[in-house]
Amino acid sequence: MKTRLVSAILLGAGMLLISNATTQEISKKKIVPAQPASIAIQAEDIQWVDGPPSLPKGARIAILEGNPKEEGPLTMRLKFPADYKIPAHWHPVIEHLTVLQGTIYFGLGDKLDEKASKELPVGSFGMVPAKINHFAWTKEETTIQLHSIGPWGITYVNPADDPRNQQ
């Protein structure tokens, strides 16, 4: 019994020393553990702006969390008008999307193909791994919420489809 008590005390002291050494090492390297911030935005407070130049004109965007140009979690909403098309493209990071309003049509491939698209109505979810060619289009005004990890970007399969090349 006495041996177990001594062993438990020594184990506890050892864990404390390791923990203290780890804390000191983190302090020396000036590594600060991430402290998540709480975010709560009511729908009427969401700030919508014109979409980025990397998307065809007509899109609206609202950044809810993060910065698309920086590393870290990213949540944004995209609002597309009726008859909107995003030609085949890929992203350097994974994307998760949820349809909040309307219907988005989505497909995989090197060229926008309406017949090969999957209809994603309100409440639908989609996930696209990094660097997978895909396209999207709408028939009606549609809003999606996109979750990703920054930095976010878009590369069109056909450079002639890139709105940044058409200016």
Describe what this molecule looks like in 3D.
- The chain is an alpha+beta fold.
- The chain has two domains: 1-35; 43-165, Jelly Rolls (Sandwich), CATH 2.60.120.10.
- Helix content is 16%, strand content 36%.
- It has a six-stranded antiparallel beta sheet, with no helix packed on it. A five-stranded antiparallel beta sheet has the order 7-6-9-4-11, with no helix packed on it.
- The N and C termini lie far apart (81 Å).
- Residues 5-33 have low confidence and may be disordered.
Task: Summarize, please.
The protein is an alpha+beta fold. 16% of the residues lie in helices and 36% in strands. The radius of gyration is 24 Å and the shape is globular.
Order of strands in the sheet with the most strands?
Answer: 1-2-3-10-5-8
What is the CATH architecture annotation of the largest domain? Sandwich
- The rounded distance between the terminal residues' Cα atoms is 81 Å
Q: What percent of residues are in strands?
A: 35-45%
Category by helix and strand content: alpha+beta
Number of domains: 2
CATH fold type of the largest domain: Jelly Rolls
Silhouette: globular
Q: What value does the average pLDDT take?
A: 85
What is the chain-wise order of helices and strands?
HEEEEEEEEEEE
